[in-house]
Each structure stands twice: as structure tokens, then as C-alpha cells.
Design goal:
By secondary structure, the chain is mainly alpha-helical. The protein has 3 helices and 2 strands. It has a domain at 8-45. It has a two-stranded antiparallel ribbon with strand order 1-2.
């Protein structure tokens, strides 16, 4: 690519925003790569899309999940009887975050 779209300062700014520490070699590599990506988007922006319907998927999309149906609540005593750990009227679970 002849003239990169982004400057080294642009890359350093993006790195700061992303809380990334990059050295000068990485700045140059990222400048080239990101400039190439932006150039591809510029090429795509030049395409004539008049009359092309927008799509969310390239194929027919359908949900494999069943529809939600209202059901009676579970019985508290039966639920607590099957729980591995109980604290009063609550099911206790191991903490996800320490």
C-alpha cells in the first residue's frame, strides 16, 4: 500500500484508548495493517448498492429455541430439597468471582 491512511500518532492514540502498551515496531505494524483494513472499507463504500436489500444474515435464519410459555412456579420445598447447598429459604451457589 502506498500511503497509509493512519499516522503513528493515530495508532498510539488508539492504543492508549484500548489500554495497550505497544513499542515502535508494533506501532508501524499496526499502522500498516489498520490502514489496509480501512482501505478495504473505502473500496467497499465505493460499490453501488442501489436496489440491494439490506440483510442481517446471508441465509435464512430461524431460532432453534422454543417459544416462551407461562408455567407454574416450581415448588419451593422440592427445589430446596434438590439443591446441593441451602441457606434458609435460598439456594446457595459457589461464588463466580473471588
Amino acid at each position: 500500500m502506498a500511503d497509509p491512511i493512519l499516522t503513528s500518532d493515530d495508532i498510539r492514540h488508539v492504543a492508549r484508548l484500548a489500554a495497550l502498551r505497544i513499542d515502535d515496531d508494533e506501532v508501524e505494524m499496526m499502522r500498516t495493517q489498520l490502514s489496509d483494513i480501512l482501505a478495504h472499507f473505502q473500496t467497499l463504500a465505493e460499490l453501488d448498492t442501489e436496489g440491494v436489500a439490506p440483510t442481517g444474515h446471508t441465509t435464512d435464519a430461524h431460532s432453534v429455541m422454543r417459544d416462551d410459555e407461562e408455567m407454574p412456579a416450581l415448588d419451593r420445598e422440592k427445589t430446596l430439597a434438590n439443591a446441593p447447598f441451602v441457606d434458609g429459604e435460598f439456594v446457595r451457589v459457589k461464588p463466580v468471582l473471588e
